[in-house]
Amino acid sequence: MDKRDTNPADTGHSARRGNVVAGLVYVFEQVMPDPFVLAIGLTLVVALLAVAFAPHASLPVILTAWYGGTFNILGFALQMILILATGYAIADAPLVQRGLRAMAANVHTPTRAALLVFPIVAVAAWLNWGLGLVVGALLSREIAKRVKVDFAWLVAGSYSAWSVCNSGLSSSIALSQASHGNALNLVEKATGQVIPLSQTVFAPFVFIPTVLVAVVMTAIFIWMHPKQDDVVAFSETQPELAAAAQADPHARDSKTSSFAARAEQSMLGTLFLLALGVGYLAMTWYSKGFELDINTTILIFLLVGLALQRTPIAYADAIRRAARQTGSMLLQYPMYGGIMGIMTGTGLASTIAKTFVAIATPVTLPVLSYFSSLIITLLIPSAGGHWAVQGPFVLPAALSLHASVPRTAMGVAMAENVSNMLQPFWAVPVVAIAGIRIQRVMGYTAITFAVSLVIYAAALWLIP
Fold this sequence. Notes:
Blueprint: H1 15-31, H2 35-53, H3 59-72, H4 74-92, H5 94-105, H6 110-127, H7 129-146, H8 151-162, H9 172-178, H10 186-191, H11 204-224, H12 239-246, H13 259-265, H14 268-288, H15 294-309, H16 312-323, H17 327-346, H18 348-359, H19 365-379, H20 383-401, H21 405-419, H22 427-434, H23 438-462
């Protein structure tokens, strides 16, 4: 075993950082169970809290509310899975892969690596969080093959750049509140109105700190790169990683000429779907004006992925590869839906909301929503599932106090960006694609947590 690998989080800058890393590794590996197990535990806790404090917490009400919430969220769960899968399919396209390799070929120093990774991954994640995850991991590997950089540092940088995703176009909280009839559009259920993205994703209090985090963390990561003697570089010594790097996932058997093979390789199916999708978007935007919700966002990424993958079978194969990353989401979303059902059905959410109203003001509520979200994210890593739990009590509080509803909702989303740097749930697919141990990455992302915590909180408090 490489001696350096026995203490991979030690960057040589300070012993304090090593202590932080050791603590994080212990918490995430020894204390916190799998997110699905956490979701089961949270369900039990919420049910007990409902029995203790909710006004309508009879056993029949709890069971009925849990069942209804579990299955009412399935449509939203599929939407979130498709967000990830369609983003993955774009990043998986041969044209995108060649582009990543071409960009990586121009990188010769750790500084240039950070200057490339942060803007590319941040933009990709802002557009689609699934796209950002895959682009970050693949771009990191391509750079690390060519330049002697610390691989953990590089992957952590890409994950840090990805952290802005909950402030972007695929933010489940922002999109659900902009989508008429969505199961998690709690604003529409309470007020009859939707919140357009202009008041959330494109609002200055969201957009400015999002850009600032990417810029500031680029500079900090350049400063944090280990000295050359301490660098643990990328090495494809694991056979499965080498095979994956050498294999062409888009290679087809050109010898077969069956009808099935010709149909799979024909672009006619792709062109037909593109015509349907583009036609619908053109018709809708011409008659109603440009607007985005969850479904149109998924449709756009579907169309882009189809165009880049070219043939139906190539796109289907890409989605099959993406599906490997969605198993935990399939389990967790129904559990969080059940929690939301218990909270709303028993009146527990309204009880908690009254507590928020008692201690908050219209100005401080979004900030309280932000800081409470930091803690909840560590237990519920999915923004959609998180909103299903926190939304039912922060939204009524905002309405009661006449506080800013968009600011309160996006306080939850921005805190997701921050706490994800200490929550390894979304880092798992990144490190799996990159081929590195997650423990080596979390030490660096702890710094991102601290910096982005201050930036987003200040923006939520100070920017109109």
